[in-house]
Each structure stands twice: as C-alpha cells, then as structure tokens.
Write a structure and sequence with these properties.
Largest sheet: 2 strands, antiparallel
Helix content: 40-55%
Radius of gyration: 21 Å
Number of strands: 2
Number of helices: 5
Strand content: under 5%
C-alpha cells in the first residue's frame, strides 16, 4: 500500500522542505542547560525550548539524588500511575511539596501535558 502513495508523500515532503517548514531533529550532545551543544555546530547555542529553565536537570545535587534512588528503586515505574500504581517516593515528594506550598495535597505528573489534561 505504501508504494501507491510514496510518490505523493515524497512530493509533499519536498514542498514542505522547500518552504522551509520541514522540522529536522536536533541531536543535543551536552547536558540540558541554558546553553547546549548541538550535533553539527561548533559553538554552544542558547536553549529557549526546554522545561529545564532553572537548570535543575544538570545540578550536581539533583544528579546525586537520582543516583541514590536508582540504587533503591530502580529506573522508572515501567508505566503510568494509573496502570502500575504509585511508588512510595512519589507520595513522600508530594507530601513535602504540599507542606512547602501550604496545601492539603499535591499530585506529580510526568509531563506538562498530563497536568493540563
């Protein structure tokens, strides 16, 4: 079936590319921060598109805490909370955030789009 539409798709992609609208993947070769190194560039570029505007993902304390929890809990939940349940460390963090914010409770989401749904 693909062979029957391949020519049309190729033409459409070529038109998108010619219009300067084709989105090429950027390969980031450095830790996420205000400046990043992108494959194929010689100088660092400013990173205006990440959610890491505070630079926490590359902060030494955050990296060490992640290493510590890898040893005790492994890597990830293997699925979403709705399917696999909630780990104790999530509840602990939610409680600390609620106390800090002065609220009864909080909930963590893995991504921004989850929180807005």
């Amino acid at each position: 079936m693909y062979d029957t539409i391949k020519s049309s798709l190729s033409q459409e992609l070529a038109a998108i590319d010619a219009a300067g609208l084709f989105k090429r993947e950027r390969i980031i070769t450095s830790p996420q921060g205000p400046e990043i190194t992108v494959e194929g560039t010689a100088t660092p570029v400013l990173n205006f598109c990440a959610n890491n505007y505070l630079g926490l993902s590359s902060h030494p304390s955050v990296i060490q805490a992640a290493k510590d929890y890898l040893d005790s809990h492994g890597f990830g939940m293997s699925s979403v909370r709705f399917i696999c349940g909630t780990q104790d460390i999530h509840k602990t963090l939610e409680k600390k955030i609620a106390e800090f914010c002065g609220t009864d409770d909080t909930i963590l989401y893995a991504a921004c789009f989850d929180a807005n749904g």
